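2024-03-11 09:14:02 INFO queue: dequeued item DNA polymerase I, len=996
2024-03-11 09:14:02 INFO validating residues
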Amino acid sequence: MSCSRAAAEATITEGAAPPAEQPAPAAAELPGPPEAGRNRGTALADAVASPEAVPVTPPGAKHLVLIDGSGYIFRAFHALPPMTRPDGTPVNAVFGFTQMLSRFLTEHRGSHLAVVFDPSRVTFRNEIYPDYKAHRPDPPEELIPQFALIREATAAFGVACIEQPGFEADDMIATYAREFAAAGGEVTIVSSDKDLMQLVRPGVRMLDPIKQKPIGEAEVVEKFGVPPEKVVEVQALIGDPVDNVPGVPKIGPKTAAELIQTYGDLESVLANTAKIKQPMRRQNLEQYAEQARLSKRLVQLVADAPLTLEVEALAVKPPEPARLSSFLAEQGFRSVLARMGLGEAAGDAGTRAARQAAVAAAQAAQVVQPVAPSPGQAPFGDYATVTTMEALAAWIAEGFAAGIIGLDTETDSLDALKANLVGVCLATAPGRACYIPLRHVTAGGGQGDMLAAPAEAPQQIPFVQAMDALRPLLTDPGVLKVLQHAKYDLEVLARPENGGIAVSPVDDTMLISYAMAAGKHGHGMDELSVLHLDHKPVSFDSVTGTGRARIPFSQVPLDKATAYAAEDADVTLRLWHILRPKLREEQALALYEQVERRMVGVLRDMEVAGIKVDGTELARIGEDFSQRMAALEQEIHALAGRPFNVGSPKQLGEILFDEMKLPGGRRSKATGAWGTDASVLEDLAAQGIPLPRKVLDWRQLAKLKSTYVEGLAAALDPRTGRVHTDFSMANTSTGRLASTEPNLQNIPIRTEEGVKIRRAFVAEPGHVLLAADYSQIELRLLAHLADVPALREAFATGQDIHSRTAADIFRLAPDAVDKEARRRAKTINFGIIYGMSAFGLAARLGIGPGEARGIIDAYFAQYPGIRDAMERLKEEARLRGYVSTSFGRKLWIPDINAKDMARRAGAERAAINAPFQGGAAEVIKRAMVRLPRALADAGLKARMLLQVHDELVFEVPETEVEPTGALVRQVMEGVAQLRVPLAVEIGTGHSWAEAH
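2024-03-11 09:14:37 INFO prediction written
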């Protein structure tokens, strides 16, 4: 198929990049004009595209360079920050690709050159095994339009394009490598795809385009433990979760290599299973022999596929200047135009002027960009305080030259939507950072209006002048801004009062760490600094004081403010240098790039939007709760025999255990007071004692009144009538979001009180609230992960899953399942995900432990795959320290090998539950990053306001309810391909309660 035709026919079926094959990180720019210089961002883009490790081909020599185009597309997309051409089309992957091709063509790497693409996901392997690659997610939306552009680029450069329907790019690479090597030529395969390592032999080598590392036989042996000709034998045993190749359960790379080294090949291993001493290994090899043979057929590359072009058609030839110049100019790729000698590139006048001014200022100040030391070697401290425009211009020039800067803000509030900017911190290299004070006042002088220049202040640059100077640097697409907890700083800087700067592109060290180590440790800057840099940063308390003596940061003397603030930017940049390269090693790059980093902008917009609250309705709810609490107090006093403070745990304990002499009381060793927490009261209530049940009801109302009625009223923005919750992105061990100030995720869903509170959340006039809720997402993930045929069938056919479970485990006809049987089945369906014990189930159902154990045994007997999956998860956690979601996120389980039995049991329950909670979090996050673009592309005005566990809440114009609901459902149900269908329930109403 020709490249031009392929460009016209490219579709979103292009295969997604496997997590294990993600690129090393980089930053890049849409290049400026030659006179602006080549910044570090472009240098990193070139590093991704660099062909230096491919030897220059001597005249007359035959050397074929085969570029794995499909793999490179994804690597360039993830390695480079977002870029768009003038019409808004994303082009970062196209830019990286053209950089690579231009260097191959101008530096004489290869006498023959071809780019090989996957024409579609469906190949002959899918006929052998329908589930092959079936679970791969769809490509990111920003990448889809770039598939066709990359094929256009290949044609514009005059480079041969190879793709063959029914075959993968790897098969075509194998075929052309065999043909060319057989004719006496040398072959270099530009790819880091481990599947291609089976092709390495004399005359055929690989080049990892990310690490710029040649791959020969020694490197293959290092990775697989066997030489290239035995790679498929090892892969047949271990399988490949990225491509959904099954392999043999519990046979890892090391074991597989040992088996192949001992017996020679797969068939010999299977013929000698009786000699294998380990019972489980022997049993799995015997049980899954055919699965291993199938896996070998899937991983074995075809080396005799039909040729789409004759070998000689791959000879390098110069591109047509007019065609190439037109293509590159249309994309805005000025540096590639210059490299190809096609004339001076036109650039954005404003950006060019800003860069030229910055460079001129740096030259005037005789600033020389230092050679950046390693993050761990540079000393901390001795940072600069920037108080003149001349000094600021020099630092801005350094930022442009560096291409990657650390960025932090200092403010007067933790609420980003109310915070005033006090200062900005920049770091241009490890150990080189500055603080730019903007709104400092002399201590004791009073702050007054923070938005105006204070009457008494230390020397500093006028606020507007400083922010106007910083704007080109902070918005330049060629300078990567590295922040810690970027969402906060982006919200602060975007406010008009703080300069109204839309900072881009950004990386977030907090989220980089979180993508790799959810549950392993915290992800705050101080903790990460100690962990990775062995450095304890200056504390906030040490510069502002504590308690009543604390002063606002705007009153901190500039020397102390600089030592604290500039260090934040320095530490953040150092952490980026250490953590960013690890994303690929930890197979977390796709998770970070496609989900976590994109969530920053999504959540920022949601927080800024907020949700409207009806203050009058809220007051009515508060009064209702107060009256009900007063009535409950009277009942509690009557049951106790005297009045007491129901909210006092001490007085309640005395009533229950001293006066009423109830059993089960335990005194605190520290205070001697009786314990009266919820578990104590629940145990007493379960014994039929009415007073503790009444106290629990009173406490629930008191908590709801305090947290939601009074808390929402306090959080209400009087200017907009809306509340703006703060979504915490890295606080949970499962990947789920948390909500604070106010917390909107703990409102009871099915209680009368929870419904009343949701009535206070309303839509603006002319709008409705639309709630989209994933139906039983965790149970669907359980059916997917455990591959339970009965549950898969129930979900596929739309059966009531709890009724189906009741019929299966209680041996009932479907029409004989009553409410009680369904209730029991529902309890165990959800309880099993949380590792519920027989005692826990007994307490939930009000039955004896023996009967509960019988129900659990019947459940596992009916669905043995679930028990196997649970045991696999616990074993995975014990061996690796973490479990993984279906989408590859590692969820660390710190106490899984604890000596304390209670801690270990809790960790085992967490290991069982984490993949389901974490998987559900991944599903809804993937939907959230797609929905804003999908709504905008459809011309719909709906705004996403809230995420509450498995539910999204939108504010929708009344005239757009139907198309919005249809689009939301389509996107949410299509974000992941599981063994069972995803289902979304849509509801609408003028209040959140009505939408349920």
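2024-03-11 09:14:37 INFO annotate: Confidence is low (pLDDT under 50) at residues 4-41, 344-352, 362-371, 445-455.
2024-03-11 09:14:38 INFO item closed
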